[in-house]
Amino acid sequence: MVATDIVCKEVRIVEWTLEQNMQQNYDFSSYFRPSIIMLKIFGFWRPERNMKFKGIYNCYTALCSLIWMAFLLSQIIYIINNWNDVQEVTAALSVTVTFTIILIQMMFFYKNTNYLKILIKEMNRPLFQVKCQKHYHIAKNTERMYKLMFKSCLYLSVLTDVLVTVVPLMGKEKKSSIKGWFPYDYTKPLYFILTYIFQNLVFIWNTFVNLSIFMIILALLIQVGLQCDLLCCTLDSLDDFCTKDNVLYEIGLEDKLKLRKDRERFSEEMTKNLVICVELHRQVIRVIKDVERINGTGIFILFVGGGLILCSSLFSVSVVKIGSLEFIMLLFYLICMLIEQFFYCWFGNEIIFKSSLILQSAFNTPWVSCNVKFQKILLVFMLKTSKPISILTGGLFTMSVPVFVSILRTTYSYFTLLKNIQ
Question: Do residues 156 and 339 make contact, with C-beta atoms less than 8 angstroms apart?
């Protein structure tokens, strides 16, 4: 009997140690590393103050930006010169509007990179860490989902770039996949090669920078939704935890039963646990505000011009031969633009849905067995959580599925208008 008690005690000690290690070691910042590496490679990550060769890196960023602006200028001049040709203007417009919107997103993102760096570091704070095995499984499943999404978007982007690069080489005549004006005859062999290299390098650079920014913002949205899930899980089983140094820890069944016997002590512990949950909810709202500040305006511009991007891409698809390599290229480009706007709206909608469940989870706390102090704090908390968390872009649009549906409706209206003009 004594031996059995000793073994059980050792098992509890091992489980407690594993629990503490799990809380301290889960790295939420790992979501951002691949995207940050890509931004550094393509010269669009703001360097640290003590970075070696910072001046050279800034020159590299400036050079990339100048090349980007030259590319965009050639697009604008081409549209002006072919203003009366609907098909040519539409073909150029899909790329021009996309590049313009991405340029605006890049400017706001680069401006607020320092806020993002602080936010990424704060995601590993003890307050945001997993508190039990159930939390850990939820976090791991979310991480697997994000990695799958990242790989899928990366493969789709690379495949689109490959198609854009290969299509001009497959045709008999020297014709670029990307429209643009140049102060020379680019059909001549040497000029065509130089123009081909210039346009495709910029297009690839744009793809990876846009993908990196997109996946970073998406990672933040997913982690906000994850924190809402963890908060609901904690509230549903609030009496399974105790607070130590302002951090929640899971307790065993034996300790839980002992705690239940003393109502005042139980109420005191539950109040401490609830205060931690209230603080977590407050910090989640703060993260949302930071996301709005980092790239909320850029996403707002994307939503405003989203219908035009999708419409021009859809029109370009409709005027080429179905099944041709050019058709496949344009179709993949359209899918990429569609996925970007859809994912923003979908995960914005997920935050609204998951945060709306916090109110019900708060009601599931053992408030009946607690004192008046706990009940008052819980009541105030429930009043705050009665309104779901949402992300505003530009102070007007909420990132949600209905907004995406309205973008699709706008796209169809523009598309119908262009077909009638044609």
Answer: yes
Alpha helices in 319-371 (DSSP H): 325-356, 358-363
> Is the pLDDT score of 44 beyond 90?
no
What are the residue ranges spanned by the domains of the chain? Answer: 2-238+252-421
- Rounded to two decimals, the pTM is 0.87
Q: Which two tokens stand for residue 371?
A: 């004192």
Count of beta carbons in the 10 Å neighbourhood of residue 420: 7
User: Between these two residues, 357 and 313, which has the higher pLDDT value?
Assistant: 357
For residues 181 and 59, what is the distance between their CA atoms, to the nearest angstrom? 27
Strand partners, 397: 393
Residue holding tokens 């689109």?
160
* Cα Rg of the chain (Å, integer): 27
**Nearest one of 45, 78, 81, 79 to 61, comparing CA atoms:** 45
Cβ(75)–Cβ(92) below 8 Å? yes
Bridge partners for 250 per DSSP: 241
User: If we measure between CA atoms, which residue out of 239, 221, 230 comes closest to residue 280?
Assistant: 230
Q: Which residue has the tokens 């539950």?
A: 270
Question: Is 9 a residue whose pLDDT tops 60?
Answer: no
What angle separates helix 401-421 from helix 86-111, to the nearest 10 degrees?
Answer: 150
What percent of the chain clears pLDDT 70, i.e. is strictly above it? 92
CA–CA separation, 70 and 58 (whole Å): 18
List, in sequence order, every residue forming a beta bridge with 249; answer none if it has no partner. 242
Rounded alpha-carbon distances, angstroms, from residue 31 to 158, 221, 249: 20, 11, 25
CA 24 to chain centre: 24
DSSP string, 110-138: HHTHHHHHHHHHHTTSGGGS--SHHHHHH
Is the pLDDT at 12 greater than 70? The verdict is: no
